[in-house]
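Title: [Solved] EamA domain-containing protein 3D structure

Original question kept below for reference.
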Amino acid sequence: MVAALASLLFVLIWSTGFVVARAMVPHAAPDLILAVRLTLTTLLLAGAALHARQALPRGRRLAAHLMAGAMLHGVYLTLSWWAVNNGMPAGIMSLLGSLQPLMVAVASVAFLGDRLPPRSWGGLAIAIVGVGCVLLPAIERSGAGSITIWPAVAGIMAMLGIAGGTLIQRGAIAGDGIAISGAVQNAGGALIAIVAALSVRDYRWDGAPILWLGLGWSVLGLSAGGLSLLVWLVRHQGPTRMSMLLLLVPPLAAMEAWLLFGERLGPVQLLGFALALGGVMLGRSTRPARGQDIAEPA
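Solution (posted by the thread starter after getting help):
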């Protein structure tokens, strides 16, 4: 029951990233937003870790946390936002993101020794088709032929970043507390975002109320809440089962855009939502073997 509620909450929180980014980017430079967001999240989770008396990792575990954060928070967020701001249509970026669970599944089998039953592969395929149906109108409007090489490369690298950061969560760092893990990993992501902001040299920040509201939700909801849930789900369900949840994000974001921005939802998109939901439920219906769950330290 706890895992089911955590999964539902994670998908709901993660899907709001589309709405928040759309609201904030007109008012500030994307890399500056990410640098401020990840730095504030680092301080928030460091305070929580200090209160819970969670020890700071040392040596290789500290380096692994920083690397996971740099990939999961820094590389993924900065490159995906850069790609969209430099010509990558949001619909195609979302479709590219739907391939991330497939990357994680293949890597988990190849490198972590996981075994996925046929129903998991079948559910993954069905869900990806569903996501494609949901995003089809956006892809048709934008056209894949308009994408230049560098946004495409950035989008692919962003997906590799989140896939790699997700897989690292199953390594030696899995025994560390969620708060200290989140603090160190957000610090790793913040370093990437700060370097990106200094490189681009765009420091636009108009201080609009919607910008501050979006920043508050990004720190408390998306980074502190959503990413902590992501780490918890990877540790207790495995990277593949957690990654399948990401396939529900584009359909749910489309529903939110329909409610908030009046974007149209046609029959093909509704069918795609049903396929994505059914595929994820099928793919996640096989429970991980005993012994895979990692008990969280007190």
